[in-house]
Design brief:
The chain is an alpha+beta fold. The protein is 19% helix and 25% strand. The protein is globular, with a radius of gyration of 17 Å.
């Protein structure tokens, strides 16, 4: 059953594990609308000026990841990542649903911004392995850490198509590396085969993740894509270290509004 309220039971489980399955919290119709919309964005049928879009590597080496493109430069369903989806009314409406408001109020407060509203894709027979890491604010150039991420499967997430692996409870370790990626020594200590498991998910299922939770993902070895949508929520006062800029407000007085 989907989570409808973020009460003491859910809070305790999340505090213990560093993740919480929220269940399938989106209708079939809304899920299809999000899938259709992201396909239209990838193919250039809907274009948002300056939207960042990244193709995958051709080497399967994460260090060879190409620089982001801007919208409209290449029409393909093989994008690895698309940022800035808060600009799209369908995705913004999904991010601002009451359950997410309740969750962010618990951990952050009334004024909440997002570091990123990001589409993630492992195209059929592709997908660069993502090494063990944590999502740490200073590694992103922020002056504080995003608190939680809500990750939503748009397609089935399975072992065969490179679903996420996590180490439950690893958020309690704190920051292992401000640059995100863990050392081989820390992997050997904290991410052994018995420590981690595959976080499989059904289409439309949302999962709440602590940003310090150790996680990684593999290659998609199937003939179908594995698509997901991820939003990192943080205090609206968070700024970039270099430029002192703030980020789009998702909840609060200056929150973005859905337009038709």
């Amino acid at each position: 059953m989907p989570v409808t309220t973020f009460g003491s039971k859910e809070q305790a489980q999340f505090a213990h594990d560093g993740y919480l399955r929220l269940g399938r919290i989106i209708s079939t119709e809304c899920l299809q609308a999000l899938c259709d919309r992201i396909d239209a964005i990838m193919l250039g049928e809907i274009c948002y000026e300056g939207m960042r879009m990244q193709l995958d590597t051709t080497t399967a080496n994460y260090q060879d990841m190409p620089a982001a493109l801007t919208a409209g430069q290449s029409a393909t369903l093989s994008y690895r990542r698309i940022d800035d989806l808060e600009r799209d009314s369908l995705f913004l409406n999904y991010m601002q649903q009451p359950l997410f408001r309740e969750i962010t109020r618990t951990f952050i407060g009334t004024e909440v911004s997002i570091f990123r509203a990001m589409f993630m894709n492992k195209p059929a027979e592709q997908g660069t392995p993502l090494p063990w890491h944590q999502d740490v604010g200073i590694g992103w150039g922020l002056d504080s850490n995003p608190k939680v991420t809500i990750w939503t499967a748009l397609d089935p997430a399975t072992v065969a198509n490179g679903c996420m692996q996590i180490v439950p409870g690893s958020h309690k370790l704190g920051v292992l590396n401000e640059g995100h990626f863990t050392s081989e020594a820390d992997q050997a200590r904290y991410a052994t085969e018995t420590d981690c498991f595959y976080l499989k998910a059904a289409p439309g299922e949302a999962i709440l993740l602590h940003n310090f939770l150790l996680h990684r993902s593999g290659v998609n070895g199937t003939g179908l894509p594995r698509r997901a949508f991820s939003t990192a929520y943080m205090d609206a006062a968070t700024r970039t270290i270099k430029t002192d800029e703030t980020f789009p407000v998702i909840f609060g007085e200056q929150a973005l509004a859905v337009t038709s």
